[in-house]
Structure formats: C-alpha cells, structure tokens
Write a structure and sequence with these properties.
With 453 residues, the protein is of the alpha+beta class. It folds into three domains: 119 residues, no CATH class; 154 residues, Jelly Rolls (Sandwich); 147 residues, Jelly Rolls (Sandwich). The protein has six helices and 21 strands. The strands form six sheets. A five-stranded antiparallel beta sheet has the order 6-3-9-5-7, with no helix packed on it. Strands 1-11-4-8 form a four-stranded antiparallel beta sheet, with no helix packed on it. Strands 12-21-15-18 form a four-stranded antiparallel beta sheet, with no helix packed on it. Helix 2 crosses helix 5 and helix 4 runs antiparallel to helix 5. The longest helix is centred in the N-terminal third of the chain and has 15 residues. The N terminus is likely disordered. Bound molecules: heme C. The site of heme C (HEC) has 22 residues, from helix 1 and helix 4.
Length: 453
Amino acid sequence: MAIKRYIFLFPSLLLLIGSCGSPEQPEKVTFAKDIAPLVYKNCTGCHRAGEAGPFPLISYQDVASRSKLIKFVTKTRFMPPWPADATYTHFIDEKVLTPDEIALITKWVDEGCVIGDSSKIPVPPVFPAGSQLGTPDLVIKFRDVYKIKGDAKDHFLLMRVPYQIPEDKYISTIEVVPGNRKLLHHVNAQLLSYEFDKRKDVMGGNVVVDINDYPNTLDAYKALSLPNDDGTFPMLTQSITNYLPGVTPPLYPPGIGGFKMPRKGAIFLKDIHYGPSRVDTSDQTTFNVFYASTPPKRPTQEFQMGTYGVSPIVPALIIPPDTVMKFTSQYTVPFDISILTVNPHMHLLGKNFWAYAVTLQGDTIPMIRINKWDFRWQYFYTYKKMLKIPRGATIHVEAVYDNTRNNPNNPFNPPRVVAERDGSMRTSDEMMQFIVTYLPYQDGDENVSLERK
Ligand code: HEC
C-alpha cells in the first residue's frame, strides 16, 4: 500500500525536492528562533536514526534541504501523522501543528529558509536510542532471526520468544521495536510464565509456526514447544503489549497497569503478521522491557466493541463494491469506569471513525473522532486524564468504509465485496474494532494525569 501511495505522490515529489539558500535576513521567520523548536517537538522523535521516519530532521541542513517537501506535507497535514481530530478530544503525545504553525513553516520556506542566529539554535532533544520511551531495563529479542520468504504473500505466525532473568520482576510496560519496519504489520503479545522446575530448558525447542499449517490450535501450541515438560500448559497473561505502526505502548502512573514477569518465561506472539515481500529478507524484533517500582495496585482491564467484541456490528460488516457505508456498534457500560486508552481499528477501506458516550441524563461525552482514516497510523490513544464513563451510559461507535475506486487504498480494482471473514486478520478483509482499556472507577480518577513524566 505504501508503494501504491508513492506512485501517486512521486511525480509531485520530483518537483518538490529542492533546497533553499540561507541569506541572513533579520525580522524574518528563522530556523534558530521559530522552526527548530517546531521540528524538535513534532518531527524529530520519528525522524532520527533507527526510527520510523525515512530521514533525519535535526540539523538546519536536514530541514532546509527538504524544505519544499516539508511545506507540502505540513500544509496537507500528511505530517506529523495524527489521525485523531484534535478539535474533538485531546490525548497525551498529541502531535498536531496549529494553523499558525503551518503558516509559519510555509512563510519560512517561501522566504528562502533563513537560518537566523545559528548560535541561538536550541539544543536538539536527546532521545534514547532504539526507544520512544527511555532506556529499557531489559531487552529481549527473537531467539532466532526470522527469515521472511520473498513469495509476495502475507505471513501470519505464532512465535515464542523465550527468556531467562535472575529473578521475578514487576513490569510497567513492554515496547516492541520492529527489526523490519517495512514488513512487520502487527504483533499481539501475551506472556507465558513457567514455574521454575516444570520446564528445564525454556530456551530450547521450536519458536515459530505458521498459523495456516495448523487448523487445530492445540497442535500449533505443541509444535511451538509451549507446554511444560509434563505436557501441562504454563500460565498465560493476556495482552501484555501490542504493535501496530505508530504505536507507542502506554506507560501509566506507578501502581496502574503492569504485570509480573517470572524469571523463566516467554513472550508469546499470538499472532505476528508480516506483509508481503517480493525478495527474501529477515526480521529480528526486540522487546524493550521497563521494570515497575511497585507491584500493580490497579491492573488495567480491557473490552472491545465490534469484531470479536462485547457488542455486535450493525448491520453485519459486509461492504458491497462501489459503496460508501456506515456501520455502528453500541455498548452500555454496566458500572462506572475510568478509561485510560482507546484504539480504533479498521483496515484499508476505513474512511472515518467516531466514538462517543451518551449518559442516562442525555449528556454526550466525546471520546475520539477520526475524520480521515489512515491505515498506517493506528495509535493507542491515551487520554490526558482518565475519562469517566458512568454506569448506564451507552458508548456509540460509528465507522464508515469506502469500497469505491476513489479510495486509493482499496486492495481490489475493480472493487469487490469485502467483509469480516471468520477469524481473518488479512488486510484485504475488514475489521471494525474499538478497544477500550479501563479501570473500575474510583473517586478522583478524573483528576489523575496520564502524561508521561
Ligand atoms: C510518528 C512518526 C512521525 C512523525 C512524528 C513525523 N513523521 Fe514524517 N514520516 C514518517 C514516516 C514513517 C514517513 C514515511 C512515509 C510513508 O511511507 O508513508 C515520513 C515521511 C515524511 C516525509 C516524506 C514524505 C514523502 O511522501 O516522501 C516528510 C517530508 C516528512 N515525513 C516530514 C515530517 C515533518 C516535517 C514532521 C513534523 C512536522 C514529521 N514528518 C513528523 C514518520 C513521522
């Protein structure tokens, strides 16, 4: 899909690549005073070595040499990528340029990229290498490099990533760092906890199987060497981390969320999806583990609406060709909850997504609105403060899909019927999901800040 988009953009890019001189003109917009702080705050986190952005945006040279393209991508709001509507609800780490900031960048480029007083260029932010969060306490990686066949097919796998550490630890979060950012599409991770004497060699055995080779899940688990030595299964902790492009894992205040990681265990990837490649290549993804100072006092809980969820999709998610169609889902909250994080999920035909709650008194609580769905940026959005949804309120989700030729991401041309096929996560099938991470409400939750320190 990224390739397709490039084909659309490419002719215009050729015209846009160009650089500026840097005449010294005071009173003008300058890199030192105006532009560097904007770039450091909104761009450099991704545009630096080892992160998702295709080139660094740190020095004057980095930015000035791509100035025309930067003017274009900021004006069109293609960059920074932030699909949620920031006029509707706010989240931590929000990366959105204001209209004034966009105008400032445009002016700077039009005026010839003035550098200004170069001694006043602020010091670029220091980011931890290989992480969005900080320096991990422990790094676990795939035991073996995974070889991806150049057969132009999607690969859906189960993987076991075994580890051994000196003692049990409490974990606040785990960050997935893809080894192959181009092909790694998503990861859902769980934790297997082995009792010390029940499995002698936790590092040994098979570590990867292809889901399609095993119609029977239990057979797949055995082929993946999951069981203890006596054939029983170890304890499983659900949903310890997720990866989708653009996702930074939640890191909640001390005591909220988190889990215990035993000294002998395995991160169980159920599942891991690589997109198609035409050449043989490989991946060795790593997991940055951050320890918690305290045991989890309030473990987080999760429900999802829509696909596999607590509430059905109405009508059933079947999108006829050449239609733009809306689907809804509604769920009434059985007790007061405090929402930490939400994650809207659709595939390539997604057009827009809207979630809000309506209380028994008829008040509307805005949750999230995405006016222009972008398949590549599926963040887990964490509220700045916990969002209380009272008992009896109904959460409404409305999702619109565009199955016409006008949708440049449509996987089929001419368009075909696209539906939610049983259990399939293939990108050419559809899903409609709203994943909600919450705690049972406690007095004062709505004042608890979730900003990362
Ligand atoms: C969340 C990570 C992230 C942030 C933040 C971000 N970028 Fe990007 N940027 C990317 C990725 C990934 C690409 C590759 C685009 C693709 O393939 O879709 C990209 C591509 C670009 C391109 C090339 C566009 C093209 O089509 O070739 C430019 C220019 C750019 N970014 C500028 C910026 C600027 C300016 C900012 C800040 C105002 C910014 N980016 C913020 C991740 C990011």
